[in-house]
Design a protein that fits this description.
CATH class of the largest domain: Alpha Beta
Oligomer: single chain
Number of domains: 2
Distance between the termini: 25 Å
Radius of gyration: 20 Å
Strand order of the largest sheet: 2-1-19-18-14-3-12-13-17
Largest sheet: 9 strands, mixed
Shape: globular
Number of helices: 6
Order of helices and strands: EEEEEEEEEEEHEHEHEHEEEEHHE
Structural class: alpha/beta
Length: 339
């Protein structure tokens, strides 16, 4: 499979700059196994969830990961990726030319740094010297295609976010409101929370012509024992497990071994693309993703899992339908439900 197989054209006018207000008023594309497609509003998801379904969400919370500063009259940026402990972070630096191993300097008043190591992938391990929380120096890590947004960090958090650690939002969950989740649970749907801290593995661009040569970065995840037990019972009962977002998928598929879910805490570099043999997930809720991204590859793979012969062609066809119906794309955009 070639990287260009997952390319498509998207004019900037389709890229959402702010979330829908209220969140559950966003559009919802429902894709059925028989190939039929419905265009709804997100709160209509109630009509597609059954009593005893299990909805799996990612409880990770977004950090203020973007530190912008002036260096010799030029705007620069350190983007926090992963906390390595003892105030050492793996980071992206733009521009990175001056930030070579051994570089020391003060980025902002009270924030001095030392570059400990430059890794092969171009990221840096940086030591921060400060008595304050590093996050206090940061801003909301909106992706670069969100320009001039009026949104705050809270708009980029899911309503069920708990544990800080992500540097990008698990955006499939942004459509939920507290009241909608209450209605869902009142219907008898079980909502389970897993953890995956979104890092470079989720949003790093694919640069290899053959996608099989792409190497995913590790991301921290956790599936707790009591959650694994309830998921195993759901599987045994024949109930549907519906993942909210690709990050939830990656936890579930990483933890399903020998026919059951295993409680695990660790790092995953699972890369799901067409040809992958799905084991854990019966339904997927997801946004509309960037061309050539690992996320669109995962969704194409899931469409094949649901019986579509060519998942890559199908996802691109669905995206064309979305454009014709004026759906909004990317992080603050609309939603797709595949059942």
């Amino acid at each position: 499979m070639k990287l260009n197989d997952f390319d498509y054209d998207l004019p900037e006018s389709y890229i959402a700059q702010d979330p829908a207000d209220p969140r559950d008023s966003s559009k919802l594309m429902v894709v059925h196994e028989d190939g039929s497609v419905e265009h709804k509003v997100f709160r209509d998801i109630m009509d597609y969830l059954k009593e005893d379904d299990v909805l799996v969400v990612n409880r990770s919370k977004v950090l203020k990961a973007r530190i912008v500063f002036d260096l010799n009259g030029k705007t620069s940026e350190v983007f926090l990726l992963k906390d390595l402990g003892d105030k050492v972070w793996n980071c992206l630096v733009r521009p990175g030319k001056r930030f070579q191993e051994g570089f020391t300097g003060e980025l902002k008043n009270g924030l001095a740094v030392e570059v400990l190591e430059v890794l092969e992938d171009g990221t840096r391990n940086i030591k921060f010297y400060t008595y304050r929380q590093i996050e206090e120096f940061g801003e909301a890590p909106f992706p670069p295609y969100i320009r001039g947004s009026s949104s705050a960090l809270e708009d980029y958090q899911t309503v069920y976010a708990v544990e800080k650690g992500s540097v990008a939002s698990p955006t499939a969950g942004l459509h939920f409101t507290d009241s909608l989740l209450e209605k869902i649970t009142d219907k008898g749907v079980e909502v389970e929370k897993v953890l995956l801290h979104v890092g470079l593995g989720t949003f790093a661009p694919v640069k290899t012509e053959d996608i099989k040569d792409h190497v995913m970065h590790n991301e921290f995840f956790q599936l707790e024992e009591d959650v694994a037990d309830r998921l195993n019972k759901a599987k045994a009962d024949g109930r549907r497990i519906i993942a909210v977002g690709t990050t939830s998928v990656r936890v579930l598929e990483s933890c399903f071994k020998n026919g059951k879910f295993e409680a695990r805490t660790g790092e995953t570099d699972i890369f799901i693309y067409p040809g992958y043999q799905w084991q854990a997930v019966d339904g997927l809720m997801t946004n509309f993703h960037l061309p050539k991204s690992t996320l669109i590859m995962l969704v194409a793979s899931f469409l094949e899992n649901k019986g579509f012969k060519d998942g890559t062609k199908k996802i691109l066809d669905l995206y064309e339908q979305a454009k014709s119906e004026n759906y909004r794309f990317y992080s603050f955009g609309d939603s797709m439900l595949i059942l």
